Amino acid sequence: MKQTLTLTLGLVCASIFAQNSTQDFQAASKLLARYKYADAEAAFGKLADREKGAMQDKARLYQAISLARQRKTDDGLKAAEKIADPVLKAFAEMNVYSNSRKSQMIFEKYGKVDFSKWPEDIAYKAFYLRGNAYGRNRQPDKAIADFRKSYELAGADDEGKLLALMDHTDVAFNAKKYDEALAASEKALPYKTKFGTSYLYLRPAFIRAEIFIRQKNLAEAEALLTVFPEKNACRVDYWSWKYDMLHGDIELARGNKEKAEEWFRKALKAAGDKGYLVKPTQKKLSGF
Fold this sequence. Notes:
Elements lengths: L1 H32 L3 H14 L2 H16 L4 H9 L4 H13 L5 H7 L9 H17 L3 H14 L4 H17 L3 H11 L3 H4 L3 H16 L3 H7 L11 H19 L2 H15 L3 H11 L3
């Protein structure tokens, strides 16, 4: 009886400890999501020092990411180096490079790695990170190939899928591969209900509209501008400005100069004091 009671108490204590570890990890994750990187780093570091095994490795991964987002690249790499699992260690290193100015190190070190052989919960994220690195370093074809794989392997992660489609669309558009950009952005359209006011949806949708304007397909372009991002956690002013600019371009293409000027003046107001938005808007208005 005494032995049974001791065993039972041991199992209960282990269960409570595991529950506390999960709660601590979730609390640290919330700090990271709220951009409180220094606090997140400390919380993940404390958890990693206390834990062992898979939870320790997971905490080290996010500690490394938290450090990298503070531009502490060397410290982030040191945290990654402490991860026991070799695949997770490599993934942590990729994250550190992605959050620093050393993104080219991702494809220099992992350019020949077939991430599809990695665990499915990180394989598509690794393809995305490498694709993003290729995109930043003006290698659009390789970037697009990795974004395709990321989208294919993302499974039920709709946000992960849309992130891959957004960057796929962006890279293709900047490389003037308009058919490729249209194909990628078309796959993003079904996510409008769930992500309609998120930059993840707005970016590919607005690029798609911009391509249609260039192709004089004005009705299709206008149909895409049905979500006005009045409330958006990511740069409301930019999306409001872009929305107004696209409407102005549509009216200008139709020959409605008066309406076009009205939209461009709205865009100027949305631009506020942000010079990188004000300058192209003023350039448009100078033509009236």
